[in-house]
Amino acid sequence: MSTENQATTYRTRSNRKKFLMGSGLSALAGCFMMSAAAAQKPAEPVKEFHIAAQSLDAALKSYAFTTNKQVMFTTDIVEGKQATPVEGEMTDAEALQKLLAGSGLVFETRNTNVVLVRTAEQQAVIDRGAGATAVDEVEQDRPLDSKGDVTEKEKTSDEITVTGTLIKGIAPESSPTLSFDRDDIIGSGVTTTEAFLRQLPQNFGGGSTEFTPAGLPNDTNSRSNNTYATGANLRGLGSGATLTLLNGNRLAPSSTIGDFVDLSAIPVSALERIEMLTDGASSIYGGDAVAGVINFVLRDDFQGAETSVRYGTVTEGHLDEYRISQLLGKGWKTGNVMAAYEYLDRDNLRLSDKPDIPTPTLSNGDPIEELDQLDLMPAQKRHSGVFSARQEIGSKLEIDAMTLVSSRHAESLTVGGVASSDITQREISSDSLSANLGADYQIGNTWTASVDANFSQVKAYELAQGIAPLNDPTWTRTNSSMWSVDVLTSGSVFELPAGDIKAAVGGQFRRETLRNRLSSGSGGHATRDVTAVFGELYLPVVGQTNAIPGIARLEVNASGRFDDYSDFGNTVNPKVGVLWSPVDGFSLRGSYSTSFAPPALGRSYASRAGAVFPYSFIRGLLNIDLPDPSLENVDYLIAQGVAADLDPETSRAFTAGMDYSLDHGGHSLTTKATYYDIKFDGRLGTTPIPQNLTFNHAPGIAFDNPDAFPPGTIVFFPSDEEVQSLISTFTTPLQFRSGATDLENIGFINNALIIRNLASTITRGVEVQLDYEFDTGRRRYFAGINANYIIDFIQQASVTSAPVERINSLYNPIDLQLRGHLGVAQGGFGANLFINHKASYRTDDSDASVSIDPWTTADLSLSYRVANKQAGWLDNTAFNLTILNILDQSPPETPTYLQYRLTGYDPANASPLGRFVAFDIRKSF
């Protein structure tokens, strides 16, 4: 990079850092100023409620999500009771009072965000003991029988376990978390779970996705995606570094190496919420939770029926999309059952539909005209079904079951390979099944024991048929499965003045299996057994009852896990988090953790291959200068595959952050800011190339600087023995390409594409989330921003090679991404405008690099819900109109990369979809 370019880049990033730091300090100062202004108790704001007639249990949970309050009650006091419907604008207290009308239940609000629901008889007993001590009050808050004695069910027996903890009734507030409820998901206007995650700044759009049929040049794992599946990719650390859960349980992975979970198998219509933990979580969940955890929580207590129909289309091109879903639910005194079905049908999007996206070119620069039918997005059809049930047996035992089935078919036209105009038709079939059976048993007053059995399987079939020219079809079959049994016991250990010390202890046995078969006769089979024990401790040091000036709340959360892998030995991973709240509404938090990730199962038998090219052909294709006259007319041998004797990946993560919330006179402000620092040691990948150039530039760099790469990466003028020794490790025949015919003229060997354990990957960054709401009594206004700024993303191939900064280059994470929103709601009407922005960057860090423009798009979502019994069949009907990318902004133009079937845009940081308009109707019965 030239000195001028370096200075420009530094000034740009320095200005962004100053802007973000200034914004953060200003927000923090504003928080304290508004805190002082809120000294007087404000009037409770008015909200809009839409809670249908249903079981009281389900209605109270709906109320909790609407008000963002923690509602505590026991299942025995709501059994068999129906809620009074709540529709319209009112305060939280008015809504809950109306909800409980005629039920014989009363409520008490504590700490503004905690609501206790009891029977009138229980409240009378508590009122008679109004002079009790704090310890006595804790006893009184437990469920009472008709005689006023403590029952065997604790008051928090209906509390849920949230992502990031093993203990019911607490949240991991010392760790950075994000939660998106059903309204957030529907209001975003997307149709699939992967599309929703792609909008979030914390999730990198690169890695294994449907936009990259042959993967990305900087992500070797993405090249194993043979099903057009999409995986989560928090922090840009790879799809295999984010653990994806369904109702807290693991899912079988996709791809030929089994490294990520296919998000498209999870239907949007069955989702209740999405919970994200964005720091290390191996102390709770075991391997793969390096960058974080995403937990998809299904709707499990729905009463009635809901039908949804959606149609969407692009305004430029021929892509149409249809989605139909049906939800049914029934509750009774001691249980409930729910079933959901969703059908999705989407056309393909072709390059000819998007003339602003450049077509791949041949080595002489001429476009390949026949590639206008190349698919930017494959055609997809999917059937998904969910069934869940819960049943109490007696007063202490509860069992639950869940099953998710999904069948997906995809078709796409792709291009052959380097400088090729061969057209290939690919057809994908993917079937997945996940099932869980669990039981919870109440032990005494405060402890619960649970057992969960979980099974998950993905079967995939890929058929590739060359159609121009016509050739014989090839196929790949993949079968990935996983089953596990978990045992966990949790509860209160003893009481402190600030509250109960709570603990959880458990164990797990898990078996993972992966099988691959190819039409060529090759393939592989691998099995891994994992045995684990784990525990967690929650310690409230200071709380409401013993608060002192400067310490309104102080909590410590510690957890640890021991895993024994049948193929990679054992590991211990701890985590500790601290939450300190100087005053109510403002808290500081921090966490430290370590994580462990064994290589994906498919890496244990992955193939190694090689090809010979004339060096002059590659130089002409990529405009690479000749490093030395001795290399002018030579061929070169390039190897790819997996190195022998891989080691596990390990990491440590540190986070520090602040949370602030304020409610005053109808104004509500929530602020979250987090600094994260993750060091990922031994991460599997290919050798990073300085200046973010391609692996084909490695020989020239190595010739000028032999220390730029680990020894053996580039071998100049190898002997016949060295060539034959390398070829003997290949599991597929050596290929001769683009005019090369033999091994007589090998000038060098390029091993930069061999997958191995890198020395380290380090990423540091800041994420900020601001949400503001103003309630006038008749109308509510919303505004907010979710931003992520990456300070560093550094890879180092070995301790002796130079670090390579990966951000702000083609197919890699961009330093600044944000998503802002503005909204208004009145009556049944709602409108939301979203602004998405990604900063500018360059193709690489060389003097010849090309600038890539920033990309800013706007999305609009309009909704109207009819809640009027006089409206006849329109009652409880919601209408939604969504326009994504309103101004039809084309993705920024980039160089094409024919070897990976990549056209002239960056699929990791942009979308080819363009303006997309969708309309859907949801009817509740």
TrEMBL record:
PROSITE patterns: TONB_DEPENDENT_REC_3. The keyword Membrane applies. The keyword Phosphoprotein does not apply. It comes from the Bacteria. SUPFAM superfamilies: Porins. Its main location: membrane. Residues 131-157 are annotated as: Disordered. Residues 1-38 form the signal peptide. This is Secretin/TonB short N-terminal domain-containing protein.
